Each structure stands twice: as C-alpha cells, then as structure tokens.
Amino acid sequence: MRQPFQILVIPFIKNETNYQFCALLRTDVAVWQFVTGGGEDGESILETAKRESKEELNLKGEFEMYKLDSYSTIPSFHFSFSKPYVVPEYCFAIDLTSFSGYIELSIEHRELKWLSYESVIRLLEWDSNKTALYELNERLKNDDMQPI
C-alpha cells in the first residue's frame, strides 16, 4: 500500500572538471525531474529512496547515498490521497561516479541527460527539484557530504 510520503533522489557524478547531474524526462507528463517515488507498505524513507533509485535507473550495484536537508510538500491531489492534504518529500543524492554498471531507464522515463548544474537547473520543472539541486551543488563545492 502506498505510504503518504515522497522521495526525491539526485544522481550525480564527478568528472575531471566539475559535477554532472542526471535529469530524467518523465514518460507520462513530459517534464524533467530527478528520481522520485513513494513508500510502499512498511518501507522507511531511506529504504524507499534506495529502492526507487534502483528501479528507475535499473542499478544493480552499490552506490553512496546522502541525505539532504531540503524538504518540501506536494499537494495530495497529485497522488491518490484525500488526506493528508499535503505529502512530504524527502531529498537524497546518490554518487554514481564509481558505479561500474549500466544505467537503464524504467518505463517511467523516456530519456536521461547528464548535465552541469547550470544546464540541468534550466531543464527542471519543479521548484523542489531546483532547491534540492542547489543544496547538493553547494555541499559538493564545499566538500560537505556525509554518506548514510
């Protein structure tokens, strides 16, 4: 059963000169965003973030995950809930720099792009994605990342 919370996960990699972030184009509403999804049954927020990352990117290996401070709420009409009226969205990031596997999109997305901060922020539809990206970019610039 769907739990009344949402997660957002930003995949990123470090190349020789900067960081790049993975934006996904949704199949159903044609908007660019990061990995998103909701908790199932008794999943914790962290378990949901890991599962959604693996499902939406078809990840088969291990990766570093980080909790972000960014937090937002989404009106419940975007989901099948009548109450609560807003659903909390918890934000995370995953480092795929050393990931040796292949990324294959789920049916939820039709395209992905690895882009710089300046490029990806212009693509994103939702303010919550932009805020979380800003936080992640600042943390990366300041070497302020602690894996969970």
UniProtKB/TrEMBL annotation:
* Keywords in alphabetical order: Hydrolase
Q: Which InterPro entries match?
A: NUDIX_hydrolase-like_dom_sf, NUDIX_hydrolase_CS, NUDIX_hydrolase_dom
Q: What PROSITE patterns does the record tag this protein with? A: NUDIX, NUDIX_BOX
Q: Which CDD domains match?
A: NUDIX_DHNTPase_like
**Domain (Nudix hydrolase): residue spans on this chain:** 1-139
Work out whether the entry's keyword set contains Hydrolase: yes
Q: Name one Pfam family in it.
A: NUDIX
Q: Does the keyword Hydrolase apply?
A: yes
Name of the protein in its database record = NUDIX pyrophosphatase
Please report the organism this UniProt entry assigns to the protein: Listeria farberi
Organismal lineage: Bacteria, Bacillati, Bacillota, Bacilli, Bacillales
